[in-house]
Amino acid sequence: MGFKYTILGGDKRSLELGKLLMKDGRDVCIYGFDMLEEYNNETVSLNEAIEYADVIVGPLPFSTDNLNVNAPFSNKAISIDMVLDFMSEKQMIIGGKFNIEHEKKLKNKNIKSSDYFKREEMQVLNAIPTAEGAIQIAMEKTPVTIHNSNVIVLGYGRIGRVLSKMLYGIGANVHVSARKYSDLAWIKNYGYISVHTKDLKTYLPKMNVVFNTIPQMILNKELLKSIDSNCLIIDLASKPGGVDFEAAREMEIKAISALGLPGKAAPVTAAMVIKDTIYNIIEELDV
Amino acid sequence: MGFKYTILGGDKRSLELGKLLMKDGRDVCIYGFDMLEEYNNETVSLNEAIEYADVIVGPLPFSTDNLNVNAPFSNKAISIDMVLDFMSEKQMIIGGKFNIEHEKKLKNKNIKSSDYFKREEMQVLNAIPTAEGAIQIAMEKTPVTIHNSNVIVLGYGRIGRVLSKMLYGIGANVHVSARKYSDLAWIKNYGYISVHTKDLKTYLPKMNVVFNTIPQMILNKELLKSIDSNCLIIDLASKPGGVDFEAAREMEIKAISALGLPGKAAPVTAAMVIKDTIYNIIEELDV
Amino acid sequence: MGFKYTILGGDKRSLELGKLLMKDGRDVCIYGFDMLEEYNNETVSLNEAIEYADVIVGPLPFSTDNLNVNAPFSNKAISIDMVLDFMSEKQMIIGGKFNIEHEKKLKNKNIKSSDYFKREEMQVLNAIPTAEGAIQIAMEKTPVTIHNSNVIVLGYGRIGRVLSKMLYGIGANVHVSARKYSDLAWIKNYGYISVHTKDLKTYLPKMNVVFNTIPQMILNKELLKSIDSNCLIIDLASKPGGVDFEAAREMEIKAISALGLPGKAAPVTAAMVIKDTIYNIIEELDV
Amino acid sequence: MGFKYTILGGDKRSLELGKLLMKDGRDVCIYGFDMLEEYNNETVSLNEAIEYADVIVGPLPFSTDNLNVNAPFSNKAISIDMVLDFMSEKQMIIGGKFNIEHEKKLKNKNIKSSDYFKREEMQVLNAIPTAEGAIQIAMEKTPVTIHNSNVIVLGYGRIGRVLSKMLYGIGANVHVSARKYSDLAWIKNYGYISVHTKDLKTYLPKMNVVFNTIPQMILNKELLKSIDSNCLIIDLASKPGGVDFEAAREMEIKAISALGLPGKAAPVTAAMVIKDTIYNIIEELDV
């Protein structure tokens, strides 16, 4: 495991990742942060940066234009094709959200690669800073404590599970809605009040905070009507989300779309999650 | 939902189920308990018992000989073929563990049926009396409290999840072993100590109780050697289980195979689980 | 319990209290908020406001100058002597932090009175918004999640108990320090890591957040030296608090004095706490 | 702390205590177990046994007849006066439940002594095996799981607190009754349903298990009438306890008096509790 790493582009989370790897005693080369004072006299070339490492760590997402590595803190473009050209078959590249074309090229060049964003454990671990970020928003935007409040989590997937556990731990009256009876059984088992999705209308009126995790329209005009005007809605589902925000505005219900919480609320934890996932990837390859 | 029910055979759990249905205000006919004093002057015939109900509720397992309904408290054989002959297309039959032949017959006769044992929510809910039964055994067979003991749960499926949560709630130092990194992430998220299966040997020596939920040989001679002689092993996996009992006996390690715990440790709860599942089945059919 | 109430002065928390009493169906007169638009055409006189009610509810603190009732949203001075003169023996006055002189006057006039701030249950309930406010600050000011962080709570009084429970519920590695062995036993019993005060030096270096609840100098220069520069200190003890802030600033350790959290982080909850306490006071008097 | 210990009399818990001290690497002399095969060729005299140690550890209770040390596994009487005569001022004696006369003699002889039973932390730690023993009984004697059952704990002292926490951790619907509003506030804070003692009659009818911890008559004939015939009552309060057992028998309500649970349900844990308390005593004396 005495691997050398090159952090290739990315935002501050990538930088934190580099620091965490160093703290673990790994050799790390940072490339693509020349806009930051700390790194602006980088003299190492892309070729050297690539050659340095056993493992090249790309950002999340790996690219935003499909041509260059996503590197918001670099004045230089980092061409994906060049990166691959510089790599040898002994090296591996790990990044987040490779697209199909990238993966095809990697395969053609016979370069070992892995997409950390596709890893189930990364999704699980990422749910933690997401949930905690959502709780922070609820604390900031309501005049009541979460303890003893009526809160409901819509959906019992990864984020729903982590979020409901934390809310329960703080002392809220936690409701969780789901459609599947087995999910409802799990919800009850963990001590929360289970709500079948079809019964939402009955439960919504007394809620202080509604957290949505379902990535499709769920809080439509109809359901919004049953929500109290003092209630806060926090939508954690990726765009377009699960809330009719326009209708909410008209009804003067506070509704917030909260995305990218891990990077915003807890960038160091977000970097740790990637680091742990990278270690798992490497360990599995070794075996 | 004003359905009438006939409880057709089964053990005391089926009888409890009948009582619970009555408590809920349902009309219930009990058939196949003539060996019990309370029911020994049953004058109703099988045909009448079948005709009486909208829903026929069979036992778990439905049959042990594939010919007759499983009815340990009846002196009369209850022929499955006769039951099906007496039924009409308006009725439905719900039982546990139908075999393929039964299901074929039901289909041929166009009779609505459902196997409650195949329902995911029943499996989840059944994990609760299983886990609690296992904890009771641990309390009875060890001279230490579970609180502050080192315990490990092997496997993080349904029973593993429910059991580790309860042990944690009592205050044990809960370890849970799994192979998948995503399971390990969940284990950590719930506050337990996660142990990769390959590292069991390191953790086993300091355990006070080992609960196995994995239905294949896991505690083999090799691993048993690392277990303390005061440790108690409780195997919850169905036969042949996951423990080399012979080797355990030779090493004088106490190992218990604990099966059928719901019916033994909490028959009324076990009946409730079936009742709730039946209600879910009926509700889904209605929709 | 069909009592009439007069809210006499106070800040927005008192106003929320009035609204909560009305929500419960009580008759409420609001006096002393003429600076707020909503109430600026109050035509009722002090005498009328006093006469109106069975229970006069004063603010927390009752007075800041010992002459007038504390009424930051009123242009008129509300003389305590006049209030008492207008009151009859059938009425009662409830306020927070009466001083000795007030209590003497109340006794002389034979007026029933009670200080809600002295009530143990109010102190307990107030610990909840305090703890939650502290957690909100920790979430805002650290780049890591509380989940899986190393946190320590200094002191195991009311706030310490509520705070450690919530931190544990979120998934932190909760340490709590105390001096008494019985407190240390309780700390262990609740699943936290117990730290004897004399061993703080050993535990502080690995902490991400330190919450102090002890109202005397505890984090002195000597102990601050053992704290990591990335650690956040939140001091919840009333002035002068338990942290050498000057030394912390010199060492570039972030230290925050967080006071009055209930009113700031959750004013509606803070009002509920007072309301519940008032109800308890009234119920006890009736008996 | 390199002290030598003599275990002087007592039951199997004292013997376990001796073994635990040895496991910790202490030198230990066992005296007063000659009825057990393992120790029946003890050749050491009482004088030698006393001289051997820095700390003499007596049983709990120290004496049952006020003349001799309580030693149910010894054929020889161990005179308290002789023990004290053999001791010097350099030694100390630690026991449980010294009576006033013993303490007077110890003082006269200038012998350091301490009563571990009087230590608050011992009472707290002892509440754990008591609570767990009570839960074991509830599991054994009811046909339902504790999970999802309605249970009530009468009294919120040490045992009440530990017991309600464990029941909650298993997933029961935990009710706790108390008289003081501050206790009721704590009960709510921990997530349990708080019941004022005067409202017991309203809550008792739907309970599956009632745990009493109050050492005075509480479940009298009147209240027993409101209890369901399937309900189980477990009385943990010392004799005469808090239940009218005669009335319960007449009404055919199952009521169990469960005393001495630590020694019965978890003798090794009970010994650990004494050991930890002894260490605390010694550490405090050193300082």
TrEMBL record, chains A, B, C, D:
Domain called D-isomer specific 2-hydroxyacid dehydrogenase NAD-binding: residue spans: 142-237
One Pfam family recorded for the sequence: DpaA_N
MF terms in GO: NAD binding
InterPro entries referenced in this protein's UniProt entry, alphabetically: D-isomer_DH_NAD-bd (IPR006140), DpaA_N (IPR031629), NAD(P)-bd_dom_sf (IPR036291)
Coiled-coil segments: none
Domain of life: Bacteria
Domain Dipicolinate synthase subunit A N-terminal: 5-116
Name this protein carries in UniProt: Dipicolinate synthase subunit A
